[in-house]
Amino acid sequence: MNLYLRLIWLLLRFPFMQKPADPLESTQLDMRVWPNDLDLNMHMNNGRYLTVMDLGRLHLTFVNGLLGACLKRGWLPVLGSAKIHYLKPLNLFQKYKLESKVIYWDEKWIYMEQHFFKEDVLCATALLKALFVGKEGKIPSQQLIDLMGKEIACPPAPEVLKRWIECEKRDEI
C-alpha cells in the first residue's frame, strides 16, 4: 500500500470512530484527491481508486470489530477479486466520500460494495470479494461473522452480485 500517510492518519483516528449499530450498515471515509493521486489526465488514477478502497475495507473491518479480533488470531485480510466501474472523474483537491459495505457472504468469501461520491454524485462503484487467512489456511466466512458478536443473517445476494459470482466461477483457473 503506497498511501502510508493516509494509513497512519486512519490508524490514529480509529479510537475515536463511531461503530455502526448494524454491522451490515455502510461505513464512510471522507477524503480528498492529492497531487500524488493524479494521472496524466489530471484526475485520480484508476489504480489509486483500488488502493484507497484498501483503506475503506480496513476502516469497515475496524468499526465492525473484526480487525482487532482477526489480528489477535494472526489472521490477515486478502482481496480475491474486484470489479470496478468508473463513472465520473475525481479532480485535484476535490473532496470525496468512500462508502464501504458488506452485502453478502458464502462459506469462503465475504462480498462487499464500495462507492465513491463527490457531493451526491456517484463517481465509481465496485464489487469485491475478500477473505481472511491464517496459519490454518482460509478462515470460513461464518467464523468471521460470528466474531462480530451479534446474530447477523446473511442478506440475499443482489442480482448484479449473482451474475458477477457466476462470471467469477466461469473464469476460475
TrEMBL record:
Entry superkingdom: Bacteria
Gene3D superfamilies membership: Hotdog Thioesterase (3.10.129.10)
Name of the protein: Thioesterase family protein
Organism of this sequence: Candidatus Berkiella cookevillensis
Lineage: Bacteria, Pseudomonadati, Pseudomonadota, Gammaproteobacteria, Candidatus Berkiellales
